[in-house]
Structure formats: structure tokens, C-alpha cells
Amino acid sequence: MILANVFCLLFFLDETLRSLASPSSLQGPELHGWRPPVDCVRANELCAAESNCSSRYRTLRQCLAGRDRNTMLANKECQAALEVLQESPLYDCRCKRGMKRELQCLQIYWSIHLGLTEGEEFYEASPYEPVTSRLSDIFRLASIFSGTGADPVASAKSNHCLDAAKACNLNDNCKKLRSSYISICNREISPAERCNRRKCHKALRQFFDRVPGEYTYRMLFCSCRDRACAERRRQTILPSCSYEDKEKPNCLDLRGVCRTDHLCRSRLADFHANCRASYQTLTSCPADNYQACLGSYAGMIGFDMTPNYVDSNPTGIVVSPWCSCRGSGNMEEECEKFLRDFTENPCLPHDQYHPRE
């Protein structure tokens, strides 16, 4: 009864906040200045069609070339260009994961926003449009992790990860793209090179970007009660090719490599935006949005920062990128903080999703 009342309250709050957040609910001066979001490719086209915006954008890109933020802002022409662009669609533009011309969209986004931050930020704003999901979606996804909603006896005997793989094989698109990345990631190049990691990563990105979450989430976050099941879950991304290496790099060095690539940088920023632990919410996820966090986690697979389960323990679950904090020197505290966002993040799959009977 208590749970039913809590759910009703949450549903009411969800609907209330949704109506308050809707642009149509704003009246009078509150509506002034509101602009519908535009993707950065379209925003660039709009800017190019307006001579003042176009010239200022070219100026800003020249200002950012090889200069730090303080040097750029000391230049009056650069300041003027920035002020004009802050009122243009370019400033608030965002991208969608998996969209056509995604890389171009992200390049446009970072061409402006990299120059607006003071040095290297620990958490960067996500260039992607926020993901919205109803509370019913969150509870439906939560049932995948915990195994709730099923008969306890049948659930204890079943292998949820095997069931997830079978469900994928019944969907043509899921089966095709899964077979593709398995084939590529298992293809040995030579005795010294076990696979082509670059091609493996690309095939994994295609799978997680093009297959609906109802299949990919079930495979990545399936509930396990024994090591055989947990090992199948760990092997989902073919970690010997996509994840593991001879040595573990330093996590901050790995982050630095990731941030040199617009796609990897964007996926990492999106992960932090949607999975950074929030202790002011019921679920410890930002805005209580599990779906956004799980999507962001899956979005990092196929990059240098690919995360995975560190072992096949069915209960003591830990996920992490392939890195450590050895050799961090005076940056060890920052490195440990970065790593904890994966290994001790309550918004990611951990023991609470796999209760012991």
C-alpha cells in the first residue's frame, strides 16, 4: 500500500514538473527569450545565412586557434564576436546521438564551447540534447536489473543474459549488427595482434547506436545470480579486443586521449551529465533518469574510454574503464575521483540491482 502511494505521488510530481517545464505553460515575460533547441548543423546553416553572424563565427574560430581562453578574451575583436554569437542559435545548439552528420554537429559545438571554459574542466557540459523519460520507463528498466516482475522460482533458475541474447536474435536488426561486431572483434590479425581494435570499436558503436535500448540494455545490464551468467554479461562487448590491453594506462591520460576526439569527448561529457551521482534524488541519478544514464553508459562503448564489468562476480558488481591511477603523482586525488564515477557510482549497475534471495 505504501509503495502504491509513493508511486502515485511520484507520478503526480512527474506530470506536474513536465507541465511546468513545457514552453506552452510559460506565460507573459517568462516566455520572452525562450528558443526551441536547434541542432548545431542547422544552427550553422542559419548563422551562415546571416552576414553578421557568419563573419563573427569566422572571427571566433580564428581567435580560438592556438590561444588559451584568457588570451582570446583580452582581444576586443574576439570579445565582440563572442557576444554576438551568444545571441545566435549556435550558442545553444545541441546534437543527437547517432544522428546523421553527428561528427560535424559535434565539431561545430566544440568549436565554440572549448573556448568558453577556463582551462581543463573536470566535468564538461554535454553537447547532446537531454533525454527525457517517464517514471514508468524508469520502473520498467529497473525491473530488468533486479529481475522483479517475474516469478521468483523461475527467475532464480533462468539465465537472464542468455535470454537477452535470444531476444536479440529474434530481431533482424539486432541479430545482424550483433553478428557483425562479434565477427569483427573475434577476427585475429596475427599472433602478435589479436584483433583490429579500431574496427571492433566501430562495429560496437554501430550496434549500440542503431539497436533499440530494449535489446542493448537487457544484454548489458541483465540480472545474474551465478558466475556463468555474469561472465556472459561481461563478454557482451568482446572485452579481449574492445576493452583489455597489455597494460592499464593512467585514467587521466586516457581521459586526455579521449578528449582529443570530438566523439569520445562528447560521449564522456554526456556520461558525466547523466550519470554523475546526485544524492538529492530518489535514485541517485540526475533527475531520477535511469534511462538517460544507461544510454550514456552504452554510448561510451566503442571508444578509448569503453567501460565494462571488471570481473564475473554476480553480486559484487564493479564497472570501470580499462585504466588505473598508478603514476598520477600530485593528480592522484583527481584521478581517484574520476575513477569513482564508474566504480562507485550508485546510478550504474551495482549490488542494489541484484538482490540476494
Automatic annotation (TrEMBL):
GO terms for molecular function: glial cell-derived neurotrophic factor receptor activity. It comes from the Eukaryota. InterPro entries: GDNF/GAS1 (IPR016017), GDNF_alpha (IPR037193), GDNF_rcpt (IPR003438), GDNF_rcpt_a2 (IPR003504). Its main location: membrane. It holds the Pfam family GDNF. Residues 40-117, 161-241, 251-347 form the GDNF/GAS1 domain. Keywords: Cell membrane, Disulfide bond, Glycoprotein, GPI-anchor, Lipoprotein, Membrane, Receptor, Signal. It is a lipid-anchor; GPI-anchor. GO terms for biological process: nervous system development. GO terms for cellular component: external side of plasma membrane; receptor complex. It is found in: Cell membrane. Residues 1-21 form the signal peptide. Belongs to the GDNFR family. This is GDNF family receptor alpha-2. It comes from Lynx pardinus (Iberian lynx).
